[in-house]
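Dear Dr. H.,

I hope your travels went smoothly. While you were away I took the liberty of generating a structure for the chain from your last submission, since the lab meeting agenda had it listed for discussion. I wanted you to have the full record in hand beforehand rather than looking at slides cold. The sequence, exactly as received, is reproduced here:
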Amino acid sequence: MSSRLSRREKQDLRRRGFRPVTIWVPDPDAPGFQEEARRQAASVSASDRESGIMDWVESVSLFDEDAAR
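The corresponding predicted structure, in token form, is as follows:
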């Protein structure tokens, strides 16, 4: 399957309210990327356990789990 869209597919997406965007993301092959990813993952993991941040996020969230099912 090609990742390129035909003109007709692009027109259909635009007609349905979509638009193309470009997203720049970190290069996982860049020097230091893996170390930084590990550091950030460990930091998030530790903060979730220590601060109860997820309890706070859930208390202020507008997400309705029942509606999502």
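Two observations you may find useful: Residues 33-51 form the longest helix (19 residues). The radius of gyration is 20 Å.

With kind regards,
E. W.
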